[in-house]
Write a structure and sequence with these properties.
It is a single chain. The protein has ten helices and 14 strands. The chain is α/β, with parallel strands linked by helices and about 375 residues long. It has two domains: about 200 residues, 3-Layer(aba) Sandwich (Rossmann fold), CATH 3.40.50.1170; about 120 residues, Rossmann fold. The protein starts with a helix and ends with a helix. About 5% of the residues have low confidence. Bound molecules: D-aspartic acid. D-aspartic acid binds next to loops.
């Protein structure tokens, strides 16, 4: 074969190969296998809730059993997931979130931190959860998880069998958020209705689709998650809180202040008390004094979590303005002794203030240190 023919044959082979590659690329088949390998891995941890709920009667979407479908069954209804991530599932529990207890928070936090530490190949985790207690579990994880990988929680306001279920779209948006590198180190995120919410500010404002609007820091759009804000208070690996060796957390009670309220009475007093209050009656104030003097920290939290009030220092005796205002209780011996005003939860809702106090009490019972913790978080 002449030099010239060899050259021409080599060129022809090269052109045919290039053509095959071009046709393969444009039809997508040639690199389909590589694409699948390159997709980020997301673990879906299912705990239950309406997102896995099925109706008792197909015509009545208000009567359903929360926490019925398995993780595998939920993901089977969202085929588009496979375009965005390689999915693995883990069934942590399958129950309505009203049945999730503080011990479950500890177990879940421990398991997620361990998984994310050991599984370097995971890009992030999605936790499916009932919406009733979503804000509590989310805030506990926000303060205790030891990772900077995205942990995204998601729920639904309509059961999976509803003719216009919101769960599948929420799950897809949550997986896209968990798979995205820009979601790292933003604390625990919640995705509902294509909004990305921060666990610290999250609230169930309304029990229907669109009811989670507080705490929005981003949106999930056509190109995936886009962020507008970064949470500025410490979270996840930046906090000082370690999980207790057992599953038990200090028992902190949450009570409501109301017109005519007398304050709680306990057979066995708790380790701490949070009062959801816009202001307290004289009777409630005195009852709280007795607890505070007995070393039980009392935290006042504005019901919407939107108040910022100055912390007041401990005084020698009850302030004169209090004695004037509460003259109907004049002579009550409970006025005697140092006056210990409640700690202030600042911008936390009462439920979240309770979680912070539970964790803070694993570290200290000192009033000044507790106050510093409430200012910091
Ligand atoms: N059934 C409730 C729950 O599990 C409500 C819900 O999931 O939306 O929290």
């Amino acid at each position: 074969m002449t030099e010239g023919r060899r050259y021409l044959q080599g060129r022809a082979r090269w052109i045919v190969a290039a053509l095959i590659a071009w046709v393969g690329c444009s039809s997508g088949w040639l690199f389909a296998a590589n694409d699948a390998e390159e997709l980020p891995k997301v673990l879906i941890v299912a705990t239950g809730g309406t997102i896995s709920g099925i109706q008792d009667d197909p015509n009545d979407p208000t009567r359903y059993r929360s926490g019925s479908l398995s993780a595998g069954q939920i993901i089977a209804s969202v085929p588009a997931l496979e375009n965005h991530a390689t999915i693995e599932t883990l069934q942590f529990s399958n129950m309505p979130s009203t049945q999730i207890m503080p011990a479950d928070w500890v177990r879940l936090s421990r398991q997620l931190s361990q998984l994310l530490r050991e599984r370097e190949d995971l890009a992030g985790v999605v936790v499916t959860h009932g919406t009733d207690r979503l804000e509590e579990t989310a805030f506990f994880l926000h303060l205790t998880l030891r990772t900077e990988k995205p942990v995204v929680m998601v729920g639904a306001q309509r059961p999976a069998t509803h003719n216009s279920a919101d769960g599948p779209a929420n799950l897809l948006a949550a997986v896209r958020t968990a798979a995205a590198p820009q979601s790292r180190d933003r604390g625990v995120l919640i995705v509902m209705d294509e909004r990305i919410l921060s666990a610290r500010e999250l609230r169930k404002d309304f029990p229907r689709v669109g009811g989670f609007a507080s705490g929005r820091i981003g949106l999930v759009g056509r190109d995936g998650p886009q962020y507008l804000y970064t949470p500025s208070r410490p979270h996840t690996r930046h906090t000082e809180f370690a999980l207790p060796a057992s599953l038990e957390l200090p028992n902190v009670d949450l009570v409501f202040s109301y017109s005519g309220g007398l304050g709680p009475r306990y057979e066995t007093p708790p380790a701490g008390i949070v009062v959801a209050a816009t202001g307290m009656t004289c009777e409630e104030t005195l009852a709280m004094q007795v607890f505070a003097r007995a070393g039980i920290p009392v935290v006042a939290a504005f019901p919407t979590g939107e108040a910022l009030r100055a912390q007041r220092p401990v005084e020698e005796t009850a302030p004169a303005r209090m004695l004037d205002l509460c003259s109907a209780l004049a002579g009550d011996p409970r006025w005697e002794g140092p006056w210990i005003p409640p700690l202030v939860a600042q911008f936390l809702t009462p439920q979240k203030a309770r979680i912070l106090l539970m964790l803070a009490l694993t570290r200290t019972t000192d009033r000044d240190e507790l106050e510093a913790i409430f200012r910091r978080y």
